[in-house]
């Protein structure tokens, strides 16, 4: 989390900082691991602000850390944005006037700017080692970890040459001014960093590698980014960026100072910031479970923002119409998986039936329920069963990953489905009597009359009106016979889809297995 010891904030006022004309925002992740929900929330808010203002959304990749960056992660970020429908106007795979859009391809740009900063006196060569900095702090009565003390600011050319003869290579540091750094945050209000709280910082390592502290502001400047929306964890680096921006403006590299907005943390379990190690943070895990993009984006938008009181369900078009980053709350948002699933369920219910089926098929194929991964490749029988079951299932699932469990028994020709553990609890002492009576009654139903209403009427009359069973005891064993599950699509509609031969076989086989199931 950001070091807030030397930061003063005020409550965001009703007089919100103005947004510039022709808003230009950016999303600039580092390709280090699987995309997580905090990253996506950042992309979403930037995208929504650009679309709301008819601005420009720039997508670039910050990949100068060769030890941590990976091409696999880069491709996963592209996959994530593409799946979610977060499109961009300039940047990776799109192009634009300010490329290249990968930092690993912009090395010469950073070298040139670093030299300009040196030549103008805004930066200087620093030869101090971390050990020497710590020793000087201890000698001065400061904590060893106090940080850099400005020792190299005024080295003479003779001193620099002596260090070079020792084989030392210099880092390049920015000179921080001896004054408070104050700015108005779009989300958090006025923020002040006290003079001396931010030491002169490194922008280029001794080996010549540029650091984030240089590359990020330089890219923003050259890509004319004028609204910087990013996570609260980067707040402590903002005074560095503001000072460097002033220098870049003096050098003609930057045209204007951007406005900043620092979005609240996304919290996980135990009042801790959601980390990459938390399962809830893994975007693709949510996709694997069957979140649809509309549901997941809707929920992520609620982590710090709301469209209106008592309205948690909205489309991305509605979000774009209403979104203003200045309405984002500064308080942390908590990732509540149960609420996320509930919101996803609402969006699943809003899908057109054929859209619901098309999106479900890849999950059904993954789970071995159907023969192909796309609707058009399915067999006629599979399409027929799924079409008939869509309205039965769509209102009962919360995630697309749950569809397999619902329709598997409808698509299967199996004449016996072993009951799941929680379904076995539905098989009370009367289950055998119920199954026996049901088999006798249903055997008399002609196959061409094996229809939902007839089945309902027959079993209701036989088991409830004549035998006196309560509905739960009457229909529970039949449901278990049909699906092997405690929760399934509506029973009589399911039996019609399954057909008489298989339905009867399942009833008889469950009856046969009852002694071993009931133990």
TrEMBL record:
Primary enzyme class: ligase
Residues spanning the membrane: none
Subcellular location: Cytoplasm
Domain Aminoacyl-tRNA synthetase class I anticodon-binding: 364-510
GO cellular component: cytosol
Biological process terms in GO annotation: glutamyl-tRNA aminoacylation
GO molecular function: ATP binding; glutamate-tRNA ligase activity; tRNA binding; zinc ion binding
Motif ('HIGH' region): 29-39
Catalysed reactions listed for this entry: tRNA(Glu) + L-glutamate + ATP = L-glutamyl-tRNA(Glu) + AMP + diphosphate
Chain span(s) of sequence motif 'KMSKS' region: 273-277
UniProt main location, coarse: cytoplasm
Residue ranges annotated for the Glutamyl/glutaminyl-tRNA synthetase class Ib catalytic domain, each copy included: 22-339
Key words of the record: Aminoacyl-tRNA synthetase, ATP-binding, Cytoplasm, Ligase, Nucleotide-binding, Protein biosynthesis
Enzyme Commission number(s) from the entry: 6.1.1.17
Xref: InterPro entries: aa-tRNA-synth_I_cd-bd (IPR045462), aa-tRNA-synth_I_codon-bd_sub2 (IPR020751), aa_tRNA-synth_I_cd-bd_sf (IPR008925), Glu-tRNA-ligase_bac/mito (IPR004527), Glu-tRNA-synth_I_codon-bd_sub1 (IPR020752), Glu/Gln-tRNA-synth (IPR000924), Glu/Gln-tRNA-synth_Ib_cat-dom (IPR020058), GluQ/Sye (IPR049940)
Binding site for ATP: 276
NCBIfam families for the chain: gltX_bact
Subunit composition and interactions: Monomer.
UniProt family annotation: Belongs to the class-I aminoacyl-tRNA synthetase family. Glutamate--tRNA ligase type 1 subfamily.
Physiological role: Catalyzes the attachment of glutamate to tRNA(Glu) in a two-step reaction: glutamate is first activated by ATP to form Glu-AMP and then transferred to the acceptor end of tRNA(Glu).
Protein name: Glutamate--tRNA ligase
Naturally occurring in which organism (per UniProt): Bifidobacterium gallicum DSM 20093 = LMG 11596
Underlying gene: gltX
């Amino acid at each position: 989390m950001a070091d807030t010891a030397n930061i003063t904030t005020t409550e965001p006022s009703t007089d919100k900082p103005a947004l510039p004309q022709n808003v230009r925002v950016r999303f600039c992740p580092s390709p280090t691991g699987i995309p997580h929900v905090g990253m996506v929330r950042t992309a979403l808010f930037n995208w929504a602000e650009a679309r709301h203002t008819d601005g420009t959304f720039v997508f670039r990749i910050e990949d100068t850390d060769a030890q941590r960056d990976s091409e696999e992660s880069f491709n996963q970020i592209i996959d994530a944005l593409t799946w979610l429908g977060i499109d961009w106007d300039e940047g990776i795979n799109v192009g634009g006037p300010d490329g290249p859009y990968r930092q690993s391809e912009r090395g010469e740009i950073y070298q040139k700017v670093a030299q300009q900063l040196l030549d103008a006196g805004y930066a200087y060569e620093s030869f101090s080692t971390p050990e020497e900095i710590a020793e000087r702090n201890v000698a001065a009565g400061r904590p060893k970890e106090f940080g850099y003390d400005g020792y190299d600011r005024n080295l003479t050319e003779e001193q620099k040459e002596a260090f070079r003869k020792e084989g030392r290579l210099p880092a390049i540091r920015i000179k921080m001014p001896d004054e408070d750094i104050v700015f108005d945050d779009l989300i958090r209000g006025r923020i002040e960093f006290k003079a001396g709280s931010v030491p002169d910082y490194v922008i280029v390592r001794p080996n010549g590698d540029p650091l984030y502290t240089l590359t990020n502001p330089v890219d923003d400047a050259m890509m004319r980014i004028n609204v910087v929306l990013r996570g609260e964890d980067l707040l402590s680096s903002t005074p560095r960026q503001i000072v460097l921006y002033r220098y870049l403006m003096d050098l003609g590299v930057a045209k204007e100072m951007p406005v900043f907005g620092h979005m609240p943390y996304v919290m996980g379990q135990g009042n801790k910031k959601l980390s990459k190690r938390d399962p809830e943070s893994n975007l693709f895990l949510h996709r694997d479970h069957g979140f649809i993009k509309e549901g997941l984006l809707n929920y992520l938008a609620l982590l710090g923002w709301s469209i209106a009181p008592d309205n948690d369900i909205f489309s991305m078009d509605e979000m774009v119409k209403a979104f203003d980053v200045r309405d984002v709350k500064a308080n942390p948002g908590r990732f509540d998986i149960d609420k996320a699933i509930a919101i996803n369920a609402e969006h699943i219910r809003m899908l057109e039936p054929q859209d619901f089926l098309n999106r479900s098929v890849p999950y059904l194929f993954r789970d071995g329920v159907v023969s192909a991964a796309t609707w058009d490749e399915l067999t006629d029988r599979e399409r027929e069963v799924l079409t008939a079951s869509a309205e039965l299932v769509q209102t009962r699932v919360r995630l697309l990953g749950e569809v397999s469990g619902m329709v598997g028994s409808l698509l299967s020709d199996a004449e016996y489905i072993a009951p799941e553990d929680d379904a076995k609890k539905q098989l009370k002492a009367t289950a055998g009597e119920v199954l026996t009576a049901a088999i006798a009654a249903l055997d008399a139903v002609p196959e061409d009359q094996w229809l939902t209403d007839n089945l309902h009427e027959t079993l209701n009359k036989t088991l409830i009106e004549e035998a006196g069973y309560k509905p739960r005891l009457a229909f529970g064993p039949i449901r278990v016979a049909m699906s092997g599950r405690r929760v399934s699509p509506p029973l009589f509609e399911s039996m019609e889809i399954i057909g008489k031969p298989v339905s009867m076989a399942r009833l008889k086989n469950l009856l046969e297995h009852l002694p071993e199931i009931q133990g």
